[in-house]
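Before a colleague's protein record goes any further, I have to sign it off. Alongside the sequence sits a line of tokens, each denoting a local backbone shape. I want your independent view on whether this chain really folds as the tokens say. Where you disagree with what is written, explain briefly why. This is what I was given:
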Amino acid sequence: MTLSKMLSTMSVGMLRACGLFALTLAGSLPLGMVVAFLRKSRFAPVRWITRGFISLMRGTPLMLQLLAWYFGPYYLFGWSIRGWRFPALAIGFILNYAAYFAEIYRGGIESIPVGQYEAAEVLGYTKMQTFMRIILPQVVKRIMPSVTNEVITLVKDTSLAFTLAYQEVFSLAKQISASQTSFMPFVIAGVFYFAANYLVEFVMGRIEKSMDYYK
């Protein structure tokens, strides 16, 4: 296989990885905020369940979670898993990263001084107005470095999709390398991942810089 053919084939795999990446971000970022609020709920059973969910997601390998989501419906209920590969990947990635983002959000929210809330109350702000106009902008600014790290990790973790035989760039690199007895596909995959992470770092850096309102 020629180099141009390798690039063409693996580019398709990279697009599939990017699709999984985008879907995971779109689902896990807002879900993480919901989980963070549930984690801070005044209702104790909700807090306990949420803490258990976070501990489970962070305490077990993502690969194991993907296998559980894919094969679980068949072994537990006897359901057909035909066509279930990508939904299982999406659910596994979204729930896993939502747990990590939830803890990042919670840390950011709890880092805001109580005086901010008290001042907003004195000014007549509702709880929703206080959060949206005063707390959230500060939280987003404080957590951007941590969120950037997680997003970069997500780019690399898309390679775990090979666990369910999803044809992303790493899976294709392994197949081509085995058939051609060449290490070049892995080099190409590494370049693709590095370029994607460089782009993520650049974009997130620009966003973080735009929030540097002290300058």
